[in-house]
Design a protein that fits this description.
Elements lengths: L8 H21 L5 H8 L2 H6 L5
């Protein structure tokens, strides 16, 4: 089954904010990760966040 979502401007901005929070948190707490690993993981975050149901 394919799901189609309509993206709105505020949703894209919210996703960017959440991605920024994620990255800042990872950089502050996961000092063992290399820059390359952070960038690789970062590419998965938007998809993961999109799957979270917001009440």
């Amino acid at each position: 089954m394919i799901r189609v979502y309509e993206m709105r401007r505020w949703e894209a901005a919210r996703m960017a904010q959440l991605l920024g929070v994620w990255e800042a948190s990872v950089r502050a707490t996961r000092l063992f990760l290399s820059e390359q690993e952070i960038r690789r993981l970062r590419s998965y975050v938007p998809q993961a966040l999109a799957g979270v149901d917001i009440c």
